[in-house]
């Protein structure tokens, strides 16, 4: 054994965490270490600040987005309503004419013009009536109200339409209520 090696007695335990007890080891009291600690703490504070600002910004975004969505839902039909106001004005004029005039032919013609304007306005917005009479019954488009006895060539077909079905931009928005032949 070398002379510089220290022999510990068998009953004495060695403390491996006691770096301060070892001569020449001053890393715990090193000023560079304190600067590094302060630098790391400042960086952590900076990251925490960035996180809080980002979180607040995201929370504001969610609130703003929810508000815009509510406004969009409330105003979704605005364009349709505005386009129907002209038809409403025509209805008011037709009602006035019905009360003042006795000419039935002119009244019918005026009311028919109002109906045609309403149909054209809705079609311009993407509404399309479903053609159901004399077509095969389809559960994807039709709602059967009742069945009636019909000749052999009309069995399984739509015989009458109680309520029209409609498409809006090629998507069904109301099923047709129909009478089916059996």
Description:
The protein is an alpha+beta fold. It folds into 3 domains: 31-74; 77-125; 128-182, Nucleotide Exchange Factor Grpe, Chain A, domain 2, CATH 2.30.22. The chain is 48% helix and 16% strand. It has helices at 31-74, 78-100, 104-124; strands at 127-129, 142-148, 158-163, 166-168, 171-174, 176-181. A 3-stranded antiparallel β-sheet has the order 1-4-5. A 3-stranded mixed β-sheet has the order 2-6-3, with no helix packed on it. It is elongated, with a radius of gyration of 42 Å. The model has no long low-confidence stretch (mean pLDDT 84).
Salient structural properties:
182 residues; alpha+beta; Nucleotide Exchange Factor Grpe, Chain A, domain 2; 3 domains; 3-stranded antiparallel beta sheet; 3-stranded mixed beta sheet; 3 helices
What percent strand?
15-25%
CATH class of the largest domain: Mainly Beta
CATH architecture of the largest domain: Roll
Q: Strand sequence of the main sheet, in spatial order?
A: 1-4-5
What is the structural class? alpha+beta
Major sheet size, sense and barrel closure = 3 strands, antiparallel
Specify Rg, calculated over alpha carbons: 42 Å
- H/E element sequence: HHHEEEEEE
Separation, N- and C-terminal Cα atoms: 113 Å
Average of per-residue pLDDT values: 84
* CATH fold-type name of the largest domain: Nucleotide Exchange Factor Grpe, Chain A, domain 2
Counted by DSSP, the helix tally is 3
Oligomer: single chain
Tell me the CATH superfamily of the largest domain.
Head domain of nucleotide exchange factor GrpE
Shape: elongated
- Number of individual domains: 3
Helix content: 40-55%
